[in-house]
User: Which sequence fits this backbone?
């Protein structure tokens, strides 16, 4: 079988398991990760700063065969991320809306201490990363935590960032926690053409980057503004306001319409901001507006 750059890693390895060894030799150590294997060969090359044509040549040159035990041992444990030292891994249990209980904190602290983690890091996605773990310990840690690994990478909806809103914050103008948890429950992990980040903020301070993520909600005294198309990265983009002062019962139908439109119209690897740059905002607005009429 002849492989191409637009094929997913998991499909390549399914067709010829031995290709994993060639990819590991070039620095792709994340082949056991349920999220990374959904990336294309071209995207994997980009993420690891490799020549895509060299990577393609290597996998096509591999003879048909099974993955060796040595290569299998090097595969990234499920639900983990390889660290800079190329030896240890981190995990970040999913914490919907960033709301954590004392029980969860104790669990995380206990496993971090038991398995000699190098550090605990609160992430920008409102999760707590347990850093510097040995690969053989990762499955045991997940068993002991009993928590969802979440979706920190891959072409899907990532963890939804949510501020305290009017539940706790004196500046909050609208409710955010229940809304953010509902959005997280509905969409977290949903496969899309590219990664998709969501932020829910209760006031114009936008503490959850509502105007610079793929879809953002910002509370006002009259409702919620909805932004689309923001992103960071090498080519940052400011989000566009799609609607102003949506009422609470209008928010979820509009969010669903935005995600559906994006899923149906975006090219592979195309963020929603680039989709808007390519075809304009009017079509998305008209499609979503039908949900609030």
Assistant:
């Amino acid at each position: 079988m002849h492989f191409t750059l637009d094929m997913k890693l998991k499909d390549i390895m399914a067709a010829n398991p031995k290709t994993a060894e060639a990819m590991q030799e070039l620095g792709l150590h994340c082949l056991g990760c349920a999220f990374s294997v959904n990336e294309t060969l071209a995207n994997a090359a980009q993420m690891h700063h490799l020549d895509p044509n060299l990577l393609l040549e290597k996998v096509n040159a591999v003879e048909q065969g099974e993955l060796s035990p040595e290569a299998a041992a090097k595969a990234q444990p499920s639900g983990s991320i390889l660290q800079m030292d190329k030896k240890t891994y981190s995990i970040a249990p999913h914490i919907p809306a960033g709301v954590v209980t004392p029980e969860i904190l104790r669990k995380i602290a206990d496993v971090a201490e038991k398995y000699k983690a190098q550090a605990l890091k609160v992430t920008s996605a409102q999760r707590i990363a347990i850093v510097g773990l040995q690969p053989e310990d990762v499955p045991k840690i997940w068993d002991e935590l009993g928590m969802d690994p979440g979706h920190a990478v891959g072409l899907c909806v990532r963890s939804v960032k949510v501020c305290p809103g009017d539940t706790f914050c004196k500046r909050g103008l609208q409710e955010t926690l229940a809304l953010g948890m509902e959005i997280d429950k509905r969409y977290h992990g949903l496969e899309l053409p590219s990664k998709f980040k969501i932020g829910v903020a209760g006031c114009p301070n936008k503490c959850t980057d509502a105007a610079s993520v793929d879809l953002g909600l910002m509370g006002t005294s009259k409702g919620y503004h909805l932004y689309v198309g923001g992103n960071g990265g090498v080519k940052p983009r400011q989000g566009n306001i799609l609607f102003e002062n949506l009422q609470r019962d209008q928010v979820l139908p509009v969010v669903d319409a935005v995600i559906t439109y994006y899923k149906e119209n975006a090219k592979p690897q195309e963020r929603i901001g680039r989709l808007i740059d390519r075809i304009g905002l009017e079509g998305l607005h008209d499609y979503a507006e039908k949900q609030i009429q």
